[in-house]
Amino acid sequence: MRDVTHHPETGRTRRRGRITVWIGRALLGALLVASLVLGGTAFRVWQVALVDHRRSADMIVVLGAAQYNGDPSPVLRSRLEHALELYRSGLSEHIVTVGGNQAGDNYTEAQAGSMWLIEQGVPPGAVVEAEVGSDTLRSIRAVSEVAERRDWDSALIVSDPWHSWRCRTMAEDQGLRAMVSPTRSGPTEDVRTAYILREAAAMLFYRVMHASADVTGYGLG
């Protein structure tokens, strides 16, 4: 005759097994949802980057990037050249250069941009320096303060393509009517995928935390 006695240890083992399976499924589901959210956000970053929304605005905004003792880096120069083209096209009478400096710098990013534009023939009175901003959100807030002081409400923002959606969203959240006109000589192909994913993650962080999550590493600002 078989012994049909139920051992407590066997029951506990089965319960632990079921719990382990449930936890595994929950983690897999969470990873799947996270992947879908990140993928959808990355697609939106890519989608907005493809379109130039240039329109007339109260100001053309050049978001800062590295400068070397007053000489714009290649990334910043690309943005300035693009802003100069928009200015000469008559889309705005004012250009706002944005960006602070690092410890020991003689110039801010805003000053370097302003000097370059004036050297190209833009009247000094047409350039406004916003010498604040070590990340995108601080830069956009500095632009919002300039707009408030001058009673402006629209901005045509110049940055790199993959940065367009995030800076436009931040500007709109600051009450500006924002458009983006991205450069077309920005991030090279070898860093494009990494930059899109970085921007997608930064955008999700901003949506949740209402704070900036800028990460340096590619020299892209």
TrEMBL record:
At the top level of its lineage, which domain of life is listed?
Bacteria
Q: Provide the coiled-coil residue spans.
A: none
Where is the DUF218 domain positioned along the sequence? 58-200
**CDD domains given in the database record:** YdcF-like
Transmembrane helix listed as a keyword: yes
Q: Which keywords does this Swiss-Prot/TrEMBL entry list? A: Membrane, Transmembrane, Transmembrane helix
Q: What is the protein's name according to its record? A: Uncharacterized SAM-binding protein YcdF, DUF218 family
Q: Is Transmembrane helix found in the keyword set?
A: yes
Q: Which organism is it from?
A: Actinopolyspora righensis
Tell me the leader sequence span.
none
One Pfam family in the UniProt entry: DUF218
One GO cellular-component annotation of the UniProt record comes to: plasma membrane
Give TM segment ranges.
21-46
